[in-house]
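Weekly puzzle thread! Below is a chain. First person to post its structure in token form gets bragging rights.
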Amino acid sequence: MTTASHRSMTPTEWGLILALAVIWGGSFFFNAIALTALPPFTIVAVRTALGGAFLAVAVLATGSAFPRTRSVWLAFLTMGFFNNVIPFSLIAFGQQSIPSGLASILNATTPIFTVIIAHLFTRDERMTPARVVGVLLGFAGIVVMIGPDALVEATGHVVAELAVLAACVSYAVSAVFARRFSRLGQPPMVTAAGQFAAAALVMVPLALVVDQPWTLPMPGAGVWGALLGLSGLASFVAYILYYRILATAGAVNLMLVTFLIPISAILLGAVLLHERLSLNHYLGMAIVGLGLAAIDGRVFRLFRRVPRPA
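Winning reply:
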């Protein structure tokens, strides 16, 4: 029997994956708009607080209940720290200096770091030859994208690019840590709401102390729309789609989102923000894409299925 992780997807599942890619690609666009008026910590504080509120309403609407044990909430806090607080803040910081399309390309390296961390800290997610090739190609793509700038001088662009890569490492840590939630027996929506609530408990006080948002000019309608897009679409709706795809299509098929997010982010940045990327960025994206294909493995399985001539 074909498992959900390896079977062909239905048109509905393809549609959900494309929708998720557009929404998460749009998060880089929303960040770029919000950064025109607000500092990074304030943006992340609003995103986690509103996103957590939306998810909490969904939990209550479905009749679920939040856990009361301290161990589960400590797990939520850890997950929120590595999956929301650190990466959201670093990406927003990086996008102050680099285009949203480039940030999305760098963000696509998350599975590459996940493979490395899973190999180091788990017993059943070890490196395979295909994954080693994928990791090497991924790092080659990163060198192509950042290399020319880094060889000249450590500019703000290089620091911003490294910040986004550090966010990818944090995402990778959270992906490996998330394995324990299956043992805690928490429904996916409760887990998502819990980690956002825990992240908001960190980010809201941090933003109040560091950014003092009450001293900033009142943002315009476009910035408020971007904040709503980050919290309502890129956080609330995206998590619902994510877990829906994971449940029916499986984790391997869900990884296709990683390939598609940079495309939507680059298109949105080019059309709406008039951003332009350099040739080395597109070349690096192509190399990273080859690395992701090697890690994913389905391309190699397709070649093995091609019948040989008699």
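Puzzle host: Confirmed. Bonus trivia for everyone else. The two ends are 29 Å apart (CA to CA).
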